[in-house]
Amino acid sequence: MSKLAAENKFIDLSDYGRPFGRFLANKLKNTNFTPIHVTLLFGISGLTAIYFLLTNHFYLAFFFIVLKSGIDAADGELARLKNTPSYFGRYLDSVFDILLNFLLLMSICYVSQTTIWLALIGFISIQLQGTLYNYYYVILRNKTAGGDTTSKIFEYKTPKALPGESQKSVTLLFFIYTLVYGVFDKIIHTIDPDAYKAPIFSNWFMTFVSLYGLGFQLFLIGLMLSLGWIEAIVPFFICYNILILVMISIRKYYYA
Question: Which of 13, 88, 137, 222 has the fewest C-beta atoms lying within 10 Å of its C-beta?
Fold first, then answer.
C-alpha cells in the first residue's frame, strides 16, 4: 500500500527498501507480529550495523545498514495491511532513526580520524537534510487525495491517541520526538515557511529531494564504508548541505 495516490508517486531514491518491506509485511500480516515489533527489529539491525562498523567489518556494516532500511519500510506497510495506524509507532520509528544516526556518526568518529566536533556537525547536517525531505514529502502527502496523513506538516500539538494505543504512551513519545527533532524542524520551517502553501510538487522535484531521504543517506554511508572512504563520510555530508539551498530555491521559484 502506498502513501501517495498513483498520479503523485515519484521515484524515491531513499525508498529502495520498499519492495523488501512489502514482502516482509505480507509475510507477517497474518501473524501476531505488530508494526512495533518490526520497528524494534529495524533498531536491532541498525545496532548490528554499528557493531560491525566498530569492529571494522565494513561490508557487514553496509549489509545491515541496507537491511535496516528494508525493515524500516515494513512497519508502516504492516500497519496499513492490518489497518492499525499508530502515533506511538510513528514517533518510535523516528526516535529510533535519530538515535541510530547519532550512534552511527559517533562510531565513525571513533574508528576514523574524524574529530568529535566535525562528527557532530555531520550529524546535524544529516538531520537538517532529512528534515527538508520529510517536510516536503509530508506536505505532498497532506495536499493530495489519498495521501497518508498520519504525519502532520507542523507537529506542535500532542495528537489524540488512535484506537488501540495509550494516550500516555503517545504523549511521552511525542514529547521525546519534539525534543530531538524540534530544533531541526524549526530551522527548516524558518528557511522555507510558505512551502505548505505551494502548489503540489511535481514528481521530478520530489525525486531530486529524495537525495536527502534517510535511506539514501544511509546507503551513501554504507557505500563509502565498503569502499574504504571512511574519512570522507563526514566532510561529504557537511558539503552535501549545499543542496538545501538549491532545493529550497527551486521550490520557491517553481512552486511559489
Answer: 13
Domain boundaries, the chain: 6-254
Question: What is the rounded radius of gyration, in angstroms, for the C-alpha atoms of the chain?
Answer: 18
> Do the beta carbons of residue 210 and residue 11 sit within 8 Å?
yes
4 vs 255: CA distance, rounded Å: 19
What is the phi/psi pair of residue 185, to 5°? -60, -45
HSE of 190 in the Cβ direction (CA atoms, 13 Å)? Answer: 7
Q: Is the pTM of this model over 0.85?
A: yes
User: Do residues 89 and 162 lie in contact, with contact meaning Cβ atoms separated by under 8 Å?
Assistant: no
Instruction: Write the CA distances from 82 to 29, 55, 175, 203, integer angstroms.
Output: 6, 39, 27, 29
pLDDT tens, residue by residue, 40-60: 999 999 999 999 999 999 999
- The C-alpha cell 488512535 sits at 162
Asked whether the beta carbons of 159 and 23 are under 8 A apart, the reply is no
For 6-254, CATH number?
A: 1.20.120
Q: Which residue has the cell 561490508?
A: 59
Amino acid at 140: L
pLDDT band for position 173 (cuts 50, 70, 90):
very high
Residue 195: its pLDDT value, please? 94
* Three cell numbers, residue 91: 514517533
